Amino acid sequence: MDAIKKRMEALRLEAEESSTKADELKAQVNKLETETTQKEQEVTSLSHKNQVLEAEVEKLEALVKTYKDEAGAGAQAGSQAESMQRKIQVLEEEAEESDRTIRELNEKLRQTDVKSGHYERKVQALEAARDQWETKYEEKSKEYEKVKKELDDFVNEIGNI
What we know:
Layout: H1 2-70, H2 75-160
């Protein structure tokens, strides 16, 4: 009877541990989903910033062309064209940096998606294992009750003798 109680307690502890582990993994999945959402927002923000910078580069390139046309009119126009060219160069460098950042974020997002899928599969496996343990626990509880009743009946019969 003590062995059954010990086994029941062990099964109960295993079920609690499985439940705790499943909760932890669910929390990890939620955290990864939150991180994924944040990374997607960053990518969107950087994409928008990149588009704005590219539009700005196009505007500045148009201005540079205009300034180059007017450069023949005087030295002042030439210095403005140089200034605009420097601005274009800076903006192009910023656009390249934004592109690199977007590529890095896309890679991190892909890795996060892979990890998220992995953890989701782990959670599903743990939930299935937990369900199996719960079923086994219920079966063992029924067996325990049956054996206990038989033992009580046997004790009553011996007591009546």
